[in-house]
């Protein structure tokens, strides 16, 4: 016969007992726990260290860092934007600016504006300019500061030259050339020289014949020069550069390598040629640029919440375990050094026989003892 009786399910008490047997953290009754002053001191130090490290870890969690990824730039069909803000110590009718690329193609400079200004800066502008030069000098020495600037870019911190706070009384003896140009993504030459540029079938030329050599003065200040879409807050290598010409016939050359990034950057070297000392060429400001084939992707990274919690648990558990082991080790060493070799603690008792008795008044066994 088949017994159809149902097997009774284990009671709730049995399940609870089974769960209790799996407890990896058994509780010790307070009557078996002994507290000491040394243990309390170590606990206070441990909790203080936990609080301090957790506090500093929170600031690490809130901080960000920059991640750099490199890849080949495959975009050769789009246009490259050049953002320009340069002040030249010559009148606007005497200078012209344009771009000539590697294919001898003259790029239209319709996006550039010529504004008559005073070359000397106001006191507030001069203070800003000195601060900018100080930052640029530190950047050349401490390259890690570039991460700080990239973070400021993300926040949109302003870096443009502030407007004049006073009305100038000097004559407008300089020309501020500012605006933008769109060029092909090939090597080229942006230059500012004497005379306005005119195109012709074999290139272009500048009408410099009507300008006297005595008026040549290519002292200049680069307030801003960048490539790509203009991003507020970024500092470019040539921002704040100021050159004063010692002679009328001088050529300033800048050799620029453009590294395509989402925060378009470049590196630069420069050279000054004095034609009055025997060199041949055209006086002016020439910026020869080339484009790197590698592209850098710069992204801002942030510690995820789960990683912060894991690090926080590691700090608390590590300090708790380490201080417990150190406390036990120090206590053991103290017991060994101070207690084991204490005078008289482990000395065996000396026994002497006198009148058939030991010094503890215990009678000795003898042959005449009754059994």
UniProtKB/TrEMBL annotation:
Endoplasmic reticulum vesicle transporter C-terminal domain location is 173-325
Topological relation to the membrane, as annotated: Multi-pass membrane protein
Domain spans labelled Endoplasmic reticulum vesicle transporter N-terminal: 19-104
Pfam families per the record?
Answer: COPIIcoated_ERV, ERGIC_N
Give the residue spans that cross the bilayer: 42-61, 308-330
| Primary subcellular site in the record, as a coarse category | endoplasmic reticulum
What does this protein's UniProt record list under function?
Answer: Plays a role in transport between endoplasmic reticulum and Golgi.
Q: What is the name attached to this protein's record?
A: Endoplasmic reticulum-Golgi intermediate compartment protein
Q: Which organism is it from?
A: Cyprinus carpio (Common carp)
């Amino acid at each position: 016969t088949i017994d159809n009786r149902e097997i009774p399910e284990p009671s709730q008490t049995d399940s609870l007992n089974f769960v209790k047997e799996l407890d990896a953290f058994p509780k010790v009754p307070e009557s078996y726990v002994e507290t000491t002053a040394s243990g309390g001191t170590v606990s206070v130090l441990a909790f203080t260290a936990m609080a301090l490290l957790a506090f500093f870890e929170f600031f690490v969690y809130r901080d960000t860092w920059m991640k750099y990824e490199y890849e080949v730039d495959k975009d050769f069909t789009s246009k490259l934007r050049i953002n320009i803000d340069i002040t030249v110590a010559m009148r606007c009718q005497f200078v012209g600016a344009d771009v000539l690329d590697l294919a001898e193609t003259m790029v239209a400079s319709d996006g550039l504006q010529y504004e008559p200004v005073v070359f000397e800066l106001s006191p507030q502008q001069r203070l800003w300019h000195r601060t900018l030069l100080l930052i640029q000098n530190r950047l050349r020495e401490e390259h890690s500061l570039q991460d700080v600037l990239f973070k400021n870019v993300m926040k949109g911190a302003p870096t443009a030259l502030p407007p004049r706070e006073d009305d100038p009384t000097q004559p407008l003896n300089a020309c501020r050339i500012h605006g933008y140009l769109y060029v092909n993504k090939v090597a080229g030459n942006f230059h500012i020289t004497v005379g306005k540029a005119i195109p012709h079938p074999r290139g272009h030329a500048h009408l410099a014949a009507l300008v006297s050599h005595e008026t040549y003065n290519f002292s200049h200040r680069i307030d801003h020069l960048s490539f790509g879409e203009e991003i507020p807050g970024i500092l470019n290598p040539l921002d704040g550069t100021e050159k004063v010409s010692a002679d009328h016939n001088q050529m300033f050359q800048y050799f620029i390598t453009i590294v395509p990034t989402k925060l378009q950057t470049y590196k630069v070297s420069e050279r000054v040629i004095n034609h009055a000392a025997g060199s041949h060429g055209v006086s002016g400001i020439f910026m020869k640029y080339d484009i790197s084939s590698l592209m850098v992707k710069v992204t801002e990274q942030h510690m995820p919440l789960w990683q912060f919690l894991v690090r926080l648990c590691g700090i608390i558990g590590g300090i708790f375990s380490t201080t417990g082991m150190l406390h036990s080790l120090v206590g053991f060493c103290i017991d060994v050094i101070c207690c084991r070799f204490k005078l008289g603690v482990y000395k065996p008792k000396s026994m002497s026989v006198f009148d058939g008795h030991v010094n503890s008044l215990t009678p000795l066994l003898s042959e005449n003892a009754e059994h």
